[in-house]
Amino acid sequence: MKTLNQRAWFFVLPVLVLVAFNALIPIMTVVNYSVQETFGDNLFFWQGLDWFQQILRSDRFHAALGRQFLFTGLILAIEIPLGIIIALSMPRQGFWVPVCLVTMALPMLIPWNVVGSMWNIFTLPDIGLLGYFLNHTLGIPYDMTQSPIAAWITIVVMDVWHWTSLVVLLCYAGLMSIPDAYYQAAKIDGASSWAVFRYIQLPKMKTVLTIAILLRFMDSFNIYTEPFTLTGGGPGNSTTLLSIDLVKIALGQFDLGPAAAMSLIYFAITLLVSWVFYTVMTKGDTN
Questions:
Q1: Is residue 243 domain-resident?
Q2: Which of 48, 40, 55 is nearest to 263 (CA)?
Q3: CATH code at position 90
Q4: Do 140 and 134 form a contact (C-beta atoms < 8 A)?
Q5: pTM for the full model?
Q6: What pLDDT, on a 0 to 100 scale, did the predictor assign at position 1?
Q7: Helix/strand/coil for 38
Q8: 228 and 151 in a common domain
Q9: Within the chain, what is the greatest distance between any pair of CA atoms?
Q10: How far is CA 11 from CA 14, 16, 24, 187, 276, in A?
Q11: 27 and 85 both lie in a single domain
Q12: Of 66, 81, 271, 82, which Cα lies nearest the Cα of 152?
């Protein structure tokens, strides 16, 4: 019987310990605040699960959570199909391959706060290039500072522009890993383009699509910097996502107990939905 060599774990163990240490201390601090109340001077009073009950019964929390799920649902519904289409359209060899790859990677290199500021200036109705063009050239009334619909369209388009490239690059890597023998066999059988996609390309991209969906869900569900810089959660509370509302409670109102409880609930929802996505996407895998 072959004996497995486990000595490699000694090299990985320091990294695991460091990551666990950096993760556990912040989480335990949040847990500590979520079950206590403080009025400053490092004085704490036991609250138990009161903050959790307050958050779960709060209409404000339910509204922000609904907006968060709506935003994430729109992002996944747009970026995943769009990323697949663009990846299928990209060349497989030749001079244009590196050009397309670099072009796709450029939006992801821009810092998140710069993306929000850039789109804010770009879409302002009077001085923004897009805003001025829509309002004064096409005659389309567009003002994200006044219209909730315009604000939602803007943050969704901004995220699609910023992060579809990630889906494209992952899907392109999956397509490039498919051996030419599959395409040759499909050509001999007279398979249509749709048949090639349905029975060859899509199954071979299953792993990278799972990664893309999980990454885009977790990132869009916890997004903060871009929409906050762009709209500040307005107009009104129309684009106040759960992450923005959490920061308002923690820093704006300085309600550390409710904010800590909300952050733990937020964390649990993210983990639960990610687990559901992963379970569904990997269902039926034999290896």
A1: yes
A2: 55
A3: 1.10.3720.10
A4: yes
A5: 0.89
A6: 53
A7: strand
A8: yes
A9: 78
A10: 7, 10, 21, 48, 32
A11: no
A12: 66
**30 close to 260: Cβ distance less than 8 angstroms:** yes
Q: What is the mean predicted confidence (pLDDT) over 187-216?
A: 91
Q: Which helix (H) or strand (E) holds 167?
A: helix 148-176
Predicted confidence at residue 25, as pLDDT, reads: 83
Contact 211/170 with Cβ under 8 angstroms? yes
Tokens of 130: 């897009």
pLDDT 10s digits, 82-97: 999 999 999 988 888 9
Residues 96 and 21 in one domain: no
Asked whether the beta carbons of 257 and 34 are under 8 A apart, the reply is yes
Q: How many CB atoms lie within 10 A of CB 198?
A: 12
Q: Return the minimum-mean-pLDDT range out of 86-90, 131-135, 157-161.
A: 131-135
CB 238 within 8 A of CB 70: no
What is the Rg, in whole angstroms, of the alpha carbon atoms belonging to the chain?
Answer: 23
Residue 183 buriedness (CB in 10 A; 0-12 / 13-18 / 19+): middle
Cα–Cα distance between 284 and 287 in angstroms, integer?
A: 9
CA–CA gap between residue 57 and residue 44 (Å, rounded): 24
Token output for 208: 């990278």
Residue 264 lies in a domain: yes
Min mean pLDDT across 4-8, 17-21, 59-63, 110-114 is at 4-8
pLDDT at 45 over 70: yes
Measured on CA atoms in the order 72, 78, 84, 90, is the torsion positive or negative?
A: negative
Structure tokens at 140: 């389309």
DSSP 110: S
